[in-house]
Structure formats: structure tokens, C-alpha cells
Amino acid sequence: MSTGDSPDVVVVGAGMAGAAISYVLTRAGAKVLCLEQGPLVGPLDHPHFGDDWEFSMRRDWAFDPNVRALDHDFPVATNGTFVPYLYNAVGGSTNHYSGFWHRLKPVDFRKGTEHGLEGTIDWPVSYEELAPYYDQNDLDVGISGVPGDLAYPARPGAPRLPLPMHGEYFNLVAAGLEKLGLHWWPADNAILTEDRGDRLACNACGMCNIGCPRGSLGTATQAYLKPAIAQGLDLRPLSRVTRISTDAFGQVDGVEYQDLTDGSGHRVNAPLVVVACNGIGTPRMLLLSTSATHPDGLGNSRDQVGRHFMTHGYRLADMWFDRPTGHWKGPFGAGPYCQEWYDTDVARGFVNGITITFGGAWGPAWSALGGTTGRRPAAWGEAHHREFEERFDRHVFCAIQADDLPVATNRVTLDPDVRDSSGLPAAKVHYDLHENTRALLEFGSDRLLEISRAAGAVGVDLQPMDENFAQPGWHLMGTCRMSSDPGEGVTDPWHRVWDTPGLVVCDGSSMVTGGAGNPTSTIGALALRCADRLVAQMGRRVEAANAS
Amino acid sequence: MTAGFPHHSRPGYYPPALSEELSTYVATMAAALVPGGAGYPSGREAQVGRFVAERASGQDAEVLAAVAQRWPAGSDAEATASLVAMERDDPTAFAYLRELVYHGYYSSRRVLAAMIDRGYAYHGAPQPLGYPQSEELLVPSARRGSYTETTEVSRVDG
């Protein structure tokens, strides 16, 4: 094992959080090493230039690492109730997202006060404290949208670029929402609609979910890693951290990693390690890093690591029209959204709320196979072409997104039977859909049917919520959450791990609640806030949270 | 160790996983699943067999070999009969084959050309062309919506 590197900080993971922290620290003059187990992704690595791009979405660009099964992925075993979606590469899962750019709302930070169900606690930070970082993250990433949605606090510090183009579906759905007099608004997108430096404006190719070779999509690479490298960041792709090490006193003193290009092992000494490997990868990394002083893994002396896994309740649907929808044009998944039922109303019999989102879908193969739900594939044989033309250009993607509860038994652990290409135990996730989340999804389904009728849809296919129901796990949250009390979380309000000096965790795992909106904006804001604090403490050892 | 790109589903980097026999089987099944008509080519004419052969993984080859053994396709008529039986008796295997064939079919330049002739604006590969602005987007006619301030959050059961 080679040794010799001694940066000020090691950042593990180059997704939104790791990239933003690397950027801020290098700007302040810190010597930062960022280790990422996935590869660099260049423009031509994306499938957009081939007519077989839809097939790539099922294979090398599948959301599920178990399907891609690349050597730089790690397997994720589940109990079958959700499908894990994450992407291991420089830029993390922002290589593979819709750029749907919601913030949390003030109430989302106070759900412990509001109801406190299951493991729900208040965030140790408020919306108002995070707002300046949301604004800065918006500016860094580049957001398009329409200011003025009354469902959110005003954000004068975060101007918007003009909306990207959408297919005809946008106005069809919007007309239905208008007819019912419901709240709706065009979604903010992490998509440039004007050129910025070497990033080109969106040309509405439609397939943000397999990345963006033009640089229009606001990935962690575009927003933070490119400038961080210019500032001196040492970024090492295909470098898998196998263990975070501690000294005899339990303080972090470095990491061990494997170069996946040749299998060689390396050690790096560092007084500060930041873990930003997402809501599954981060608890896995902490649990893998056992030692005499941390026999149950880092940060886990109170048995909190991996608990409170949330992934948003999700039920997907296809809305079918007898008119063109242009579903393959414009950003995927980020058209109009409705937040008429976002806030808790206990008269409904449950707490929390939902967002219903409408968006484009994929191409002709997807349509022929029955759209997002796959419930209505075109017949084979002589009827195929007629049934294909009844489907292609005729459907709209719909998602009912529910604010999930943090449940202690929904948990990431290690799987002793499944291993990654380095021989490390895979992540194992147990997740049960909570009754409250199920009720939210069923309530939202009824509302979606009302909207579809008002929009003039000729049919709706909802993902069946039967014994095989497995929701998409796009958002991985809560598993190393922040807390004011060491017994309720893994880190303090500044992301310092309660029982491990020199260790910081910041990513989706830090989130205490998930709201009913996509989390990347919040992850970016948290990372900038965390990094500001680290810069303020530069030159001083980052102590364990409960020692300060 | 083969970390990084390319993946096995990217054609041209790895030897084909499908035998010539299995490739022919897929082509025959594709012709039965998607016959020509209404200006569209058949699955065979769209070279679906070749598409699948170039991209199939080892797992695909194993599944297709098992499927071909149980539901043979010596002729077009036999292929149709096998598909009827497969759809009825093993929906999972049928869906697997159909997914491969539909993807191959709608990735074909001949099919894309037929779609354009039928009036669709879809042009296959998303880039580099993208799509032009087609219409003005609606904006909400009334400003509706609200949120709860931090200081206003209170117990819902109290």
C-alpha cells in the first residue's frame, strides 16, 4: 500500500455535496483531495448521440446500480419495496437527474414540532438560516424558472433564467389545473437556457435523466468541480475508499483507498475527512470503518447510523391523450407541478403532504412498452403499428411525491453475502412503506384522476400499489441525520459526527425530513453551509461535536 | 477489473455474446412480434436480430438460449405459435424478449424514417439536434398558494 499524500482534507464522494465542499475549501486555500469511486463522465459517454439511447437507459445508464453492475458501482440489496437509484461517477447522481429544483419550505424544518410521528424531529437548522445558501447554490448551479410562486418564501437573491422549452403536454396539463382552480407553477430546473462560459444553453433534446453532453444541466461537475480543479483540487476518479481510519484515541487520521484501474491500495493521512457518498453510500462507509475504538462503525456508538432512511413516497402514472403531447421534447420530469395539498391537514386522516409533478417521458420504445408504468404495452403482431400510434406522442409522465416519515427500522446496514468488486460488503436496505405515506399516495392518486379528467385525458394508468409495489428510490435521505441531541442523530447541526473527531458527513443522509420535493437543492445548500463553517475553523482541528 | 466505461451494452467493444443461431432466432421472433405494415418495416427488415446480438450481455444470451429451447422459431408460423404460448405460459420471459425486440425496432434508422414519413417530429438520437421551441407555455392565470412561516408552525393535534 502506497503512502505519502497528506492533504488538509479528504472528501469522499464527488456528488453535489462533495463537489460544493471541495470548491469552497479550495477557494479558501485548503489542500483538498477528493476521492470518487466512479469515473469521469465526458460528453460522448452519454448516450444522446445514438439512436439506441433508450436501450442505454435500461443498461449502462440505468438508474439502478444493480442493473448497471459496473465494477465501480456497489450493489444495493433491498427487501423489494423500493428500487435504489444512484449513480457512481464524478458528479454523482447529478449526472443522472432531472434537474428538478425544489427547496424545502419552512414547515419542513419543523415537522417534529408539527407532529413528531415515528422518528420525526425538528431540524437543528431553520429555513431562514439555510436560505442564503440556497440562493448561492442556485447562482452556482444556474436555475431556470418563473419567480413568484406564493407557495414558497420569496427569494430575491436567486434570479431565474427563462424557462426551457417543453412539449405540448405542458399546456394540456396546465389547462386542466387551471380549470380546477388548483395551485400550480412551472417547475424550476437546474438547466441553463442561456450560454454560460463553456456550458451551452439547453436545446430541449429531452433526456436530462441520462445526463447532458452540452453542459446545460446543472451537475456537480459543471457547478463546482470544474472551478474547484482550477483552484487546485486533487480529484481522483475510480478511487474507491475502502476504510476511514482512526488513531488510538478514536480520532480520524486518514483513509485507505483502492485505485480501480489497477487494483493497487493507497493510504492518505489527513486530519479531516468529509464523507459525501449519498444516503446509502455514506452509512455504508461509516459501517465499513470499524476499529477498536469504533467497533460498530464510525458515528455509531448510539446505534443511529443508517436509521431513518427516507426515499419519498412515490407513485408514478401515465396520463393518456388523444392529441399530441410531444413527451420526448424538453426537460424530463420538470414541467408543471401542483402543491395544492402540500401542508398537513389532519382532517384528511394523515399528516404531511404531496406534490404532483407532470413531465415529459422518453421515446418510442418507451411508449411501445406502455409508458412509465408499462401497464399498457402496444400489442404484438398485426395490431402493433396501430397500437403504437395510439401511444407514442400521446402520454404524459406523472409523479405523486409524498413526504415520507423517518422510521427507525427503515435502515441501511451491511450485507454479509453480497460484495462489490473490491470484496467489500454491499449495502443492505430495509424499507417498509409507512401507512401514512401510503395514505398520502392514495389520496394523491384520487386528485391525479380529477386533474386528468379536467385536462381531457382519455385514460390514466397508475402504478399498482399491490404486494409487488416498489417505488423508485430516486432520493436517498436521512440515514446520518443532523440533530441537536446525540441520541437522535449522527451529526451535530454543523455536520460533525457526534462521536468521531475529524469526521464530517454532509449529503442527502444529513436530511432530517424530505418534504415533498426533490432534494438536490437542499443538499447543495447544506454543503455550502457546512463548508463555510469548515473554512471558518481552518487551522484548527475539527473536534467531535460533543467535545466542543 | 473493468472499471469505467464502456459498458457491455455499448456495441463494438466486446465480442458478441449471442451465437449466430440465437441472433437468427431473435430476428425471426422480431418479425412475428412486429410485422411490416402501414409504412413500417418488419422487425426482420429493421435488423432487430443484429441490434440485440451487438448489445446482448451474457445474461441476455443465457435467457434467450433458454427461451429458444422451450419456444422454437423455425418458421414464421412456428414463431407466432411460440409467442402465443410464451405470452400465456411465461409472461416474464415474454416481456423480456419483447423489451429487447421493441428497443431494437425503435432504434432502427428504417423505423425512424417511417415515423418521419408518418408525420412525427421525432428524429432518434436526442443530440446534437435537440428540438426547436414549439409553442408558448402557459403561466398560472391566478397567483394561488401559501406556505407556513417557521414561527407559525404549531402542533397539529393540539
- How many discrete structural domains of chain A? 2
CATH C-level label of the largest domain in chain A: Alpha Beta
Largest pleated sheet of chain A? 6 strands, antiparallel
Rg of chain A, rounded, reads 22 Å
What structural class do helix, strand and pairing data of chain B support?
Answer: mainly alpha
Rounded mean pLDDT score of chain A: 95
- Summed over residues and divided by their number, the pLDDT of chain B gives a mean of 92
Account of the 3D structure:
- The complex is a heterodimer of chains A (548) and B (158).
- Helices cover 22% and strands 18% of the residues of chain A.
- With 548 residues, chain A is an alpha/beta fold.
- Chain A has two domains: 1-142 and 218-312 and 407-433 and 470-548, FAD/NAD(P)-binding domain, CATH 3.50.50; 146-209 and 313-402 and 441-468, Cholesterol Oxidase, domain 2 (2-Layer Sandwich).
- Chain A has a six-stranded antiparallel sheet, covered by helices on one side.
- In chain A, helix 1 packs parallel to helix 7, helix 1 packs parallel to helix 12 (520-536) and helix 6 (169-180) packs across helix 11.
- The two termini of chain A are 35 Å apart.
- Chain B is an all-alpha fold.
- Chain B has a domain at 20-117.
- Chain B has helices at residues 20-33, 48-55, 58-70, 76-89, 91-106, 109-117.
- The radius of gyration of chain B is 23 Å and the shape is extended.
- At the A-B interface, helix 2, helix 6, strand 6, helix 9 and helix 10 of A face helix 5 and helix 6 of B.
- Chain A: InterPro entries: 4Fe4S_Fe-S-bd, 4Fe4S_Fe_S_CS, FAD/NAD-bd_sf, GMC_OxRdtase_N, GMC_OxRtase_C.
- Chain A: Belongs to the GMC oxidoreductase family.
- Chain A: Keywords: FAD, Flavoprotein, Iron, Iron-sulfur, Metal-binding, Oxidoreductase.
- Chain A: Residues 190-222 form the 4Fe-4S ferredoxin-type domain.
- Chain A: It holds the Pfam family GMC_oxred_N.
